[in-house]
């Protein structure tokens, strides 16, 4: 029986492209002009293209891996369960690092921007920064205690408005400066422009994590699940068009923002603009966007943290009492020990999606602990670009390169009869697509794994030890 015929209702190509672009583009875009400062225009452009191509391949691999599961069932976790069940904790670590790190960066960004939007007389910038970060808890904390976040769908609308406004602000400021021969830019905010000479290997790797994070799309499986007629050809076309739009936007924002200030540019370009209505409106929109997005990042981070906690607890119990293994198995042992197709036939649409228990008491203390740690870190660190660099070098690299690489290496050109049965059962006509038999793509996936792990180590080292 062909599961993936896609004849029912679903998202159109256009809406899927919009959702993909919206998932990729975020506040990290504001640090990309700084990457041109460290990399030079030439190398920065090459790295933007390289990150786009490798991330695009990762997204295509995610689309291919969805063909091994019933339509709508594919997630990082469910694909992990049919490929490398032992990596399920790695998946949760990747999601935790990605979501929790981005959430913390939102608090740091709020502390950076709000003193510029509304300054308090007699207060130092540092005091105002701490006040606004702690004050943001009035919005974020109640929302983080909600079990369901459906009402925050409006955050995506605000995000689109804010990003569109900020992009136009960057374009207009360069045009205005150019017309006025840059006389409107303070002398301390003007620097030379480097077309070919990067600042060094370590600064380049420090900003590489930011570039990787800028392209990260953690929602690809959801977009594929909702797609009408989800053929591999349509998935590839969505990835191609989405990445083309994103590259054009990232390149112009990076180039125009860098040309406006040269090497005098700081990490976050929105901080470079003067104190006027248009700049402050952009900052206020951005703060509103990130505060409403904070619980959207916090929610999956909490789920992954709970999964990691339960897995570690299970390992410790197993190590302390090996004789009671059958009475205290790991949370996912029941799934690991069964044939995936058998599990699916028993569980229907819920293969691999069994929720790890999160009782109310643990929900409360885990939420409180994570919020306290997040606010302590955000108050202690005042470098927005440093946080994005670390998040990109860890969670972004794992989601964009390492996990898709592992999936592709396991699923593409495989001799595993169980996996081939899955592809035949759920892939429909796509099961005969040449990409599933491509030895070159399989080797490329191996390269993604190696590149991801090596760049992660180098990027983290470059960011922490300047």
TrEMBL record:
| One annotated GO molecular function | L-serine transmembrane transporter activity
Q: Does the keyword Secreted apply?
A: no
InterPro entries in UniProt = AA_transpt_TM
Domain Amino acid transporter transmembrane residue range list:
11-418
| Localization in the cell | Membrane
For this protein, the parts annotated as crossing the membrane are 41-61, 89-109, 129-146, 158-179, 238-261, 281-298, 363-381, 387-409, 443-464
Q: Where does it sit, as one GO cellular component term?
A: fungal-type vacuole membrane
Instruction: Keyword check for Protein biosynthesis, yes or no.
Output: no
The topology of this chain with respect to the membrane is: Multi-pass membrane protein
Task: Please provide the record's keywords in A-Z order.
Answer: Membrane, Transmembrane, Transmembrane helix
Q: Which family does it belong to?
A: Belongs to the amino acid/polyamine transporter 2 family.
The protein's name: DEKNAAC104537
């Amino acid at each position: 029986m062909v599961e993936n015929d896609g004849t029912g209702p679903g998202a159109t190509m256009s809406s899927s492209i919009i959702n993909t672009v919206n998932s990729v583009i975020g506040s990290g875009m504001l640090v990309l002009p700084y990457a041109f400062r460290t990399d030079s225009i030439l190398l920065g452009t090459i790295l933007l293209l390289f990150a786009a191509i490798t991330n695009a391949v990762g997204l295509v691999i995610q689309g291919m891996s969805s063909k091994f599961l019933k339509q709508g069932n594919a997630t990082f976790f469910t694909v992990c369960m049919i490929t490398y069940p032992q990596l399920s904790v790695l998946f949760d670590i990747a999601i935790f690092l990605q979501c929790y790190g981005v959430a913390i960066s939102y608090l740091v960004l709020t502390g950076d921007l709000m003193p510029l939007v509304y300054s308090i007389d007699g207060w130092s910038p540092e005091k105002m920064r701490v006040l606004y970060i702690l004050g943001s808890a009035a919005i974020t904390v109640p929302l983080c205690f909600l079990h369901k976040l459906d009402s925050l769908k409006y955050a995506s609308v605000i995000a689109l408005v804010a990003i569109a406004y900020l992009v136009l602000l960057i374009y207009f400021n360069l045009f205005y400066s150019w017309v006025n021969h840059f006389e409107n830019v303070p002398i301390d905010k003007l620097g030379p422009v480097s077309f070919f000479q990067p600042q060094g290997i370590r600064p380049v790797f420090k900003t590489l994590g930011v570039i990787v994070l800028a392209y990260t799309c953690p929602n690809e499986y959801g977009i594929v699940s909702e797609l009408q007629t989800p053929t591999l050809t349509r998935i590839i076309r969505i990835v191609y068009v989405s990445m083309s739009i994103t590259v054009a936007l990232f390149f112009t924002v990076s180039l125009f923002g860098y040309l406006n200030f040269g090497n005098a540019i700081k990490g976050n370009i929105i901080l470079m603009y003067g104190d006027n209505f248009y700049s402050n409106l952009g900052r206020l929109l951005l703060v509103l966007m990130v505060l409403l997005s904070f619980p959207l990042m916090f929610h999956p981070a909490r789920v992954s943290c709970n999964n990691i906690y339960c897995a570690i607890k299970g390992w410790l119990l197993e190590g302390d009492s090996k004789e009671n293994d059958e009475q205290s198995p790991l949370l996912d042992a029941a799934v690991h020990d069964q044939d995936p197709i058998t599990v699916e036939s028993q569980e229907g649409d819920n293969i691999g999606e069994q929720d790890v228990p999160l009782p109310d008491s643990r929900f409360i203390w885990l939420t409180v602990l994570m919020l306290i740690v997040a606010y302590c870190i955000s108050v202690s660190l005042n470098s927005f670009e440093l946080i994005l660099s670390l998040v990109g070098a860890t969670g972004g690299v794992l989601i964009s390169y390492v996990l898709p690489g592992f999936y592709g290496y396991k699923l593409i050109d495989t001799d595993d009869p169980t996996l081939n049965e899955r592809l035949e059962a759920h892939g429909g006509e796509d099961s005969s697509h040449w990409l599933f038999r491509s030895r070159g793509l399989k080797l490329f996936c191996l390269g993604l794994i190696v590149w991801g792990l090596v760049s992660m180590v180098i990027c983290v080292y470059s960011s922490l030890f300047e």
